Amino acid sequence: MKAAEQADRIRAAVERNPRKMTLQLAHELGVPEVEVIRAFPPGRVQELDISRWEKLFRAFEAFGQVWVLVSNGAATIEAKGQFGGFTTAGEFFNVQTDTLDMHIRFRQLAAIFAVEKPGHLDGTGTRSIQFFDQTGAAALKVFFNFGGPISPEREKMFVELRKRFQMQSTTDGTDNPDKS
User: Fold this and answer.
1) What per-residue confidence (pLDDT) applies to 172?
2) Cα–Cα distance for residue pair 40/44, rounded to 1 Å
3) What's the CA gap between 119 and 114, in Å, rounded?
4) In-domain check, residue 98
5) At what angle do helices 22-29 and 3-16 cross, to 10 degrees?
6) Per-residue model confidence as pLDDT tens digits over 15-55
7) 137: left (phi over 0), alpha (psi -120 to 50) or beta
């Protein structure tokens, strides 16, 4: 199947099932989850600057409690906690607080997206930053609301974060990361 045909097929599936979990759609379509995210309508997804991954993780601390989801082939964990206690040791960027203890293999991160999506249970709009690895699998997802509406303050913070870390396009159409 040609790349354009596959993108159209994924886009159609997202339009038919906007509340469906992206991981499930990816499995059903036989594509990496990142391709499902890329197929979202432009107003619901924005690619962020991968070169600024560490600054983005550090910016999460200002949100207070968030929900972090990590999945692999056999399990998914949902943890509520606050980012902080940042260190780097070898191949790991560490987040270590009383509520989160994560060791992120940062060199494996390949793409980041700000995502707005109707929740799969009740359709309430969620706001998240989603990190993908080099295979296109979700590395982790940070949700600013989960199981309920986002507060106006958090919505404003999410919009500002998305804008601050977005990819900038140059006049020749190539991506140029915003270095602010």
Assistant:
1) 47
2) 6
3) 15
4) yes
5) 140
6) 999 989 999 999 999 999 999 999 999 899 999 999 999 99
7) beta
How far is Cα of residue 162 from the mean position of the Cα atoms in its chain? 11
Q: Tokens 């197929």 label which residue?
A: 39
Task: Give the side-chain half-sphere CA count within 13 A for 141.
Answer: 26
The confidence score (pLDDT) of residue 169 equals 62
177 belongs to a structural domain: no
| Any domain includes 94 | yes
Cα–Cα distance, 19 to 119 (Å, whole number): 6
For the chain, residues with pLDDT lower than 70 are 169-180
110-136 core/surface letters (b: 16 or more CB in 10 A; e: else): bbbbbbbbebeeeeeebbbbbbbbeeb
Number of DSSP helices (H) and strands (E) in the chain, helices first: 5, 11
Which pLDDT does position 100 carry in this prediction? 97
What's the number of domains the chain is made of? 1
The pLDDT assigned to 59 comes to: 98
Closest CA to 66 of 51, 56, 75, 74: 56
Within a domain: 70: yes
CATH number of the domain to which 84 belongs: 3.40.1570.10
Structural domain of 156: 46-168
Q: How far apart are CA 142 and CA 79, in angstroms?
A: 10
